[in-house]
Amino acid sequence: MIAAAESAKSLDGEGDMAIAAASSFVGDANGNDNDGDDDDAENDANGKMGAEDGGDDVSNAKGQSGDACNNNYNNDYNADGRFDHTSRKVVVHNILKYIRHKELQKLVASWLVGHESKNIKIVATKKPPKDNWVKVTLSEESMVNTFIELINTGGEGGKAMLNGRGKPLFAKRADEMFVNGGDRRECGDSGDGQKRKERHPDGNDGGENGGERDTRNTKRFKSSPEIRILSSDEVRDAITPLWKMTYPQQLDSKMKEMVNKCAKTIVKEIKGKFKILEREAKRGQRNKNSIQLYDWLNQLRAIEIDQPIPSPLKYEYRNKCEFTIGYRLVSDDRGEREDNTLIPTTTGGEKDTVDAELTMRDGVTKEGDDGEDEKVAADDLNITTNPHTSIAMSSLSTSTSNAEFRKVPAAGFLAQGWNGGIYPPHPLQNMPDWSCGIADIFNEFLPTSSIPPYDSKAHRGVWRTVTVRCSLRTRECMVIVLHAPATGGAGARDDGSDDYTRTFDAEKVRLVGMLTKGAIPTPKRDFPEGHCNDTYTADISGAATPSSATGMNKSGSEEEKVEDNNNNDGGIRVTSIYFQEYDGLSLPTPDHPVQHIYGKKYIEEKLGKCTFQISPGAFFQTNTDGAEVLYSIIVERIREVTSDPQRTLLLDVCCGTGTIGLTCLKEGVVGALVGVDIAEPAIADARINAKRNGFHDAEKAEESGVVTTTRFVASAAEKVMPEVMRDISSGGVRGMSTTTPVIVAVVDPARDGLHGIVVRTLRANEKIQRLIYVSCNPVGTLTRDAAMLCGPPTKKYPGRPFKPTRSQPVDMFPMTKHCEMVMTFDRMSKEEYEKYQA
Ligand SMILES: C[S@@+](CC[C@H](N)C(=O)[O-])C[C@H]1O[C@@H](n2cnc3c(N)ncnc32)[C@H](O)[C@@H]1O
């Protein structure tokens, strides 16, 4: 979130040009929102809730075209204390770089013409002078999805709207672009600077690839006058920015961040809410001193942060990597570039790469001065045939002010935005060998494929991304290849020149053959000196013993552990392959259909005392060893408050494949479990995982009459939570043995945090005494949600407040800035609460 805030700042920075809102817009010309800062309190004071309130109850939310997303996130403060309205902002790409002020206003206004019934109101627009995107602020977050859909599909024939020169526009939520760069359901550090589905601060999902999404995203939006090939150190800087620090230094910097940007911000935000009430009282909108500032907020360390618990593995810890497919730039000046910037190959050298160089058969897109792509005709290419590989080669180069490059189809990371090309994962210290081995296979396949990578600017081409997930404990590996339709993508030319239908199936077969012909090849890595030479042993006194619950912590040196993890003696093989066709302009949701092509339909992972099945669309923590530590902390926090586990029910919100809840059941700290997750594949896995680990699921139990201990619900938490809570409160959950449970809640949302309705439901239900919030965005959305949970009661957020009682960072993403936080909230006692009421 810090990086997200920085990215957002770069948008709002000096170089940006605020565009006066067209007359049909509301708001001002500076991009300031007119709806004021005090929505929450003002609405309360007026005794009515505006649309931003998210509705008083779920039926309201449901009533909104089935979308419960009209939340109140508009009232978020940035880490720097400013209001952040990012959740109402959309970035529309492919705007002409040098469009005139008035023309832009006209263009923006034209998007809404004929679509008045959609009730979209644009409050402000901002476009940096030399970039090809515009940031649009809508008056309510509930309009965001409709607006995005309108831009992406509201043009002729259901295609994207056009930019005035016939190029399709595409729109994305601003908070995805700057926080995750992708699907906001996911969590984490994507590590690759690319938009990602599963966003976990690890570089692939939320840092899905274990990298620094934020830096890269920032770079993507900066106009880069000069393109050059980054050195391996620079790639590491972009994706794993803490790599030069010792591990104690990394932990130290994360600790400071947690104190300054998480703990202090929460206190500041809660105090801010009291101030709003004070102002309202002065205006006569509320009884004077109806609630007084809590004492704990005035303590020196109002929220004490424990020392971060280190990741058991500091190197090569990722179990999932996501590669973008595009073009890498290869310097023409090869003789002088004997550094490590070219893809190391499994056969050990540049030669194969050189042999395999080719450019596209039908042309190359090259960015012209005005930011529009010029199509270079195939005739202009000097096509030759490579005698070794019999592939078409071209001498056409992309030139910049002082360098010339060839473009070679490749899979890897965008370390400096699309224009900078693809970089292989080999130099990145958080990437395990198997992931680079898979990248090598793709980097052998793609240059020899008759089908080109997808061009995300023109929306043409086919190969899009590769997701690889591997369990080193079960030695299973799944590959998911995302591709546009073989007919050539949303921006395919009408003349059929982008249609690859004839060769697509054969290419799929060839790729599957390459992926499965043997064990994943051992790559030639490109590590800096001292890799794995880390003898650090953490002093975690005062913190919970990481693996006391699961007993899974491996002993041995870092080198041994990594060696052990990478040991490919038995030969890790690809055990499962999926293809996923996607014609959209951003990324598919977890529920988007997949095509099973090869092997098993899922992979299995062992974690603690459980075994979990993971399907393609399901989230799973990307650092397995780190997840065990994380879960053991949760188990300990629950154990502290459960004297009778059999009567304790765990509410696992955003449960994924059921990992947290099932671990707690297995550890015997709770007797029953209700899990909620929006992703159907994850819930399908969770139900199977319950059975696989010896527990009964409510769905089946209802038919068979078996007493059950688990129930998993596939739904957005904001839609179903009030109903689930009502169920639990009115005598237990259908099909479950526990009828009067003590309830403990664990929430583990994606980077965008909890929906307002979920926060409100948890807060209003005083049966929940302890709430454990697991956050992959502790300096962002956790601070917002914590303030809602702990602030003074309002109409929107009624109920006795929670109080943060323990804050335990867990480092799941070494070398990146990301850190997971387990924050424990306990309900304020009645006696204490009464003290503050006037
Ligand atoms: C960080 S993952 C945590 C998953 C799980 N607790 C674990 O440790 O593996 C976040 C999860 O939130 C889910 N999610 C995202 N938005 C949601 C929503 N609105 N309602 C319920 N679940 C949601 C995602 O599908 C994902 O599984």
UniProtKB/TrEMBL annotation:
GO terms for MF: methyltransferase activity
Compositional bias (Basic and acidic residues): 181-203
Cross-referenced Gene3D superfamilies: Vaccinia Virus protein VP39
Ligand binding (S-adenosyl-L-methionine): 621, 677, 748
CDD domains: AdoMet_MTases
Domain Methyltransferase: 650-698
One annotated GO biological process: methylation
Keyword field contains Transit peptide: no
Feature: compositional bias, Polar residues: 540-555
Disordered: region residues: 26-67, 181-227, 540-569
Active-site annotation: 776
Keywords recorded for this protein, A-Z: Methyltransferase, S-adenosyl-L-methionine, Transferase
Bias-annotated ranges (Acidic residues): 34-43
Family (UniProt): Belongs to the class I-like SAM-binding methyltransferase superfamily. RNA M5U methyltransferase family.
The name this protein goes by in its record: Methyltransferase domain-containing protein
Organism in which the protein naturally occurs: Stephanodiscus triporus
Lineage: Eukaryota, Sar, Stramenopiles, Ochrophyta, Bacillariophyta
